[in-house]
Amino acid sequence: MNAVILIAKRELAGYFRTWLGYVIIAAVLVLDGLLFNAFALGSGMDRKSSEVISQFFFFSSGVTMTASVFISMRLLAAERESGTVNLLYSSPVRDFEIVLGKYLAALGFLAILLAASVYMPAMVLVAGKISWGHVFAGYLGLLLLGAASLAVGTFGSAVTRSQILAVILSAVMVVALLVMWWVGRVTDRPLSSVFENLALWSLHFPPFQAGIIHLRDVIYYVAVSYVALFASVRVLEARRWR
Amino acid sequence: MIEVEGLTKYYGEHAAIRDLSFTINKGEVIGFLGLNGAGKSTTLRVLGAVLLPTAGRVKIDGLDLGAEPHEVRKRIGFLPDVPPLYNEMTVGAYLAFVAQLRGVPAESIGQRVREAEHKTALTEMHDEVIGTLSHGYRQRVGVAQALVHKPALLILDEPTSGLDPVQIVEMRKLIRGLRGEHTVLLSSHILSEISQTCDRLLVIDEGKLVAQGTESELSKGSGAAIDIEVASGADKAKSAIAAVDGVKSVEVVRTDAQGAQLRVQAASELRPAIVRALVQAGVDVLRVDRGASQLESVFMQLTHTRSA
Description:
The complex is a heterodimer of chains A (242) and B (308). Chain A has one domain. In chain A, α9 (132-159) packs parallel to α14. Chain A is built from 14 helices and no strands. Chain A has helices spanning 2-17, 19-40, 49-72, 77-82, 85-90, 95-115, 119-122, 124-127, 132-159, 163-178, 180-186, 191-198, 206-209, 215-239. Chain B has two domains: 2-218, Rossmann fold, CATH 3.40.50; 225-290, 2-Layer Sandwich (Alpha-Beta Plaits). In chain B, the strands form three sheets. Chain B has a six-stranded mixed beta sheet with strand order 6-7-8-3-9-10, sandwiched between helices. In chain B, 41% of the residues are buried. Chain B is built from eleven helices and 14 strands. In chain B, α4 packs across α5 (135-147). Chain B has 308 residues and is an alpha/beta fold. Chain B is elongated, with a radius of gyration of 23 Å.
């Protein structure tokens, strides 16, 4: 377990030793800020505070998914590209520890990123009231949605040595998970409800956005993360045979 | 220290190494010699516990690599053909990371890093960012990371590749300095440097072990050359040498005012007999050399039999 923390610490520090981390943080904050001004605040002052916060979490979820794909692109692809993966492979570290360490670093970075945006819902305080419970639920939702997207991104990063290809693959997988709701709409029962429940956003995120935490939604995001990480570990293991 | 038995590794349909067997004793410095694509890197990656073999058994320090890869990895230091460096880290931070990763206890990490830097002459580079280092320094950081945890076995894949002549000499010195403390296995496709650094050579070609032994063992009876320079009388010398038992052929390479040079195809052990024959024939011997290209020719013979 020490190795997981060691790898995670190095990776997390790596985000801030290169331009990547700063670029992602800046891009996300600019996007969030623009969207917040344009949509959540609206034109007048006639909105309810809870509506503004809900809107904030709505578009933040899109930004978070996009950012996650970029945060995770380098995790394993860059290690293979530069050959440093051989250091990890030849060290007394198990393959799941490599994947977990990398993933936790990305998750830590995402948490920092999300924390940096707290000022936006907090601004509602100026002209209204906020329910901190609502904000907490929304951020938990963003973190879980991000965690699942990061895990998918980790898998994308595991299968290729090119970071650009990793981004594309991960984006395709995330979008495929998103449009499951649509597949659910055009299929018949009972298949339709299976697809609807598999969808990354449509059923599972809106409750968080409205300030409600359902255990089934938490379990869904954790399960997606687990499956994607499990697959990543398998990819790493398989590579030793090739 | 290392026992390899029937080691085979397939990449898809293609066998990178086939039925490789050899043993290496503790404290030896072994050179792994072969042309590019002969299977050197693949073998070292298997021994470095990076790749899993398709078939065969590897025992390192009495531990089976297949059964206890984790334990084996604690005892080896591996430098792949491309040094595994994190460009954004400083040399010191990187070495400390590697030491921790390989299980060096926290209290001795600082000391181990200093020792590794000292051995590889990197002490002054402690605070430099790896991405800004020149190729020679990067290669040294690569060696430093392989030995920072004091492994029993050091595996170095082409440690001198891309270095300039001065750096090659330094690297050779460095590797020789590791003798005794570690068992070292290094690979190269350049014969001259490997024969100077290593106790024993393993020659690999197209995934198979074609020869092993010390330099003189390898060149024995394989038609290696001896260079002889005489003051005068090239023809007399030629017939005298040709009469010695075991000499395969003699040719005059050069004759001029300073004398003549002859190339003799014979095992290097015949040198005293040849000199005696020359002296008896009344020829003044100026110089006797094992041909500089002797091992090279052995190498060519071993590796070209199949490709020719």
